[in-house]
Design goal:
By secondary structure, the protein is of the alpha/beta class. It is built from eleven helices and twelve strands. It has one domain: Alpha-Beta Barrel (TIM Barrel). The structure holds ligand PBG.
């Protein structure tokens, strides 16, 4: 490989040549759109920190879900904002009144073939805003992982009963996948896959989401259960554990500052990997585009292609409907 015999610019000379040698693709088939379900009726609340994203009530979300399905997006990921919060997040396993259970029934009857993935976590449902039950150790409040697993299992079965297609535990609770898998299997839900947020970092990029889902911790932070951004081996340990516990798809989150993790997970385990392009990553491009500093479409597509190049099979992104339109 020597110049002048080798000239790498030859294959970049025109769009057709570039297309011919392109290694990575962005396709609507691999996209998941997150949706925020708000209690009440006739609600479509704009989320100020996330331009063009909304909180939807159950009665209004079905129409939007139909549009998502018609755009070819195969799946939505549901987050709930319940009417009432309590210390243990009991809305999450309420078969009759639970916000997600109601949303599932409405969505599965309105758009049966749209995959409904549910967030299995307590943070949007607890009054303290943490992802698990609290207990005290030496005078400070900490997460009780073992007690939380029991509640997550209840939440998971209740979601499955209401029609969830895939369950996505996101709390970084030790043992959550094993306990959810066992509960599903004992309750005739052997066929329901688990998409685990195995490698979830304690990130500043979740800021806008916490406003959108009204799930910010009321004291402290999540550094005692989410991974320290300076580490990568721990992410691989987490992923290995979750695969051994029965996870079918692995999520890496956030995505853009963690492409190395996406790559290591993919090359080490060869399982389906989803990269979660989180709220802060979405908001950054939107803000820069509004100021005229970035071309929104080009920057969004480039970010998502970079995650596919890193090894992500699936992209969870608030831009899913935009991308679906752009790719048409
Ligand atoms: C927790 C959860 C969070 C996100 C998804 N699930 C927030 C957190 O851990 O604080 C963040 C998603 C985003 O920022 O887009 N249930």
């Amino acid at each position: 490989m020597n110049f002048p015999t080798t000239r790498l610019s030859r294959l970049r000379a025109n769009p057709a040549l570039r297309r011919l040698v392109r290694q990575t693709t962005l396709d609507v088939s691999n996209l998941i759109m997150p949706l925020f379900i708000h209690h009440g009726n006739n609600i479509k609340n704009p989320i100020p920190s996330m331009p063009n994203q909304f909180q939807w009530s159950v009665d209004r979300v079905t129409e939007f879900a139909r549009q998502i399905y018609d755009l070819g997006i195969p799946a939505v990921l549901l987050f709930g904002i319940p009417a009432r919060k309590d210390p243990i997040g009991s809305d999450t396993w309420d078969d009759q009144q639970g916000i997600i259970q109601n949303a599932l029934r409405a969505l599965k009857s309105a758009v049966p073939d749209l995959l409904c993935i549910t967030d299995v976590c307590l943070c949007e449902y607890t009054d303290h805003g943490h992802c698990g039950l609290l207990t005290e150790r030496q005078g400070s409040q900490i997460i009780d992982h073992d007690a939380t697993c029991e509640k997550l299992a209840l939440q998971a079965i209740s979601h499955a009963r209401a029609g969830a297609d895939i369950l996505a535990p996101s709390g970084m609770i030790d043992g959550a996948v094993a306990s959810i898998r066992a509960a599903l299997d004992e309750n005739e839900f052997k066929h329901i896959p688990i998409m685990s947020y195995a490698a979830k970092y304690a990130s500043a990029f979740y800021g806008p989401f916490r406003e959108a889902a009204q799930g910010a911790p009321q004291f402290g932070d999540r550094k005692t259960y989410q991974i320290d951004p300076a580490n990568s081996d721990q992410a691989l340990q987490e992923v290995k554990l979750d695969i051994d516990e029965g996870a079918d798809i692995i999520i890496v989150k956030p995505a853009l500052s963690y492409a190395d993790i996406v790559h290591r997970v993919k090359t080490t385990f060869n399982v389906p990997v989803a990269a979660y392009n989180v709220s802060g990553e979405y908001a950054m491009i939107k803000a820069a585009a509004e100021k005229g500093s970035l071309d929104e479409k080009a920057a969004t597509i480039e970010s998502l292609i970079s995650l596919r190049r890193a090894g992500a099979d699936i992209l969870i992104t608030y831009s899913a409907p935009d991308i679906a339109q752009w790719l048409k």
